[in-house]
Design goal:
six-stranded antiparallel β-sheet, mainly beta, 6 strands, 77 residues, single chain, 8% helix, globular
């Protein structure tokens, strides 16, 4: 039996510790028992508008949740 393909999500961050002057878009893979970001950010940009432009078309917007890290702006599935 083959493993199911992981769910891919994109997370937009505002001024995370590793890029304190930027918005960062990270692609995450979520599978059976794991959730992890790719090693390199998809984009490091100066504005939220530019960050959103990096998100592939056809995905669903999910607003940040109260329990999310404060630097998370939004997530896309």
């Amino acid at each position: 039996m083959s493993e199911a393909a992981p769910l891919i999500m994109y997370v937009i961050y505002c001024r995370p510790a590793d890029y304190p002057d930027s918005y960062v878009v990270r692609r995450w893979g979520i599978g059976d028992g794991y959730a992890r970001p790719e090693d390199v950010p998809l984009a490091v940009v100066p504005t939220l508008r530019w960050a959103r432009a990096q998100i592939p078309e056809g995905l669903f917007h999910h607003r940040r949740q109260p329990q999310d890290d404060p630097v998370i702006v939004e997530t896309w599935f």
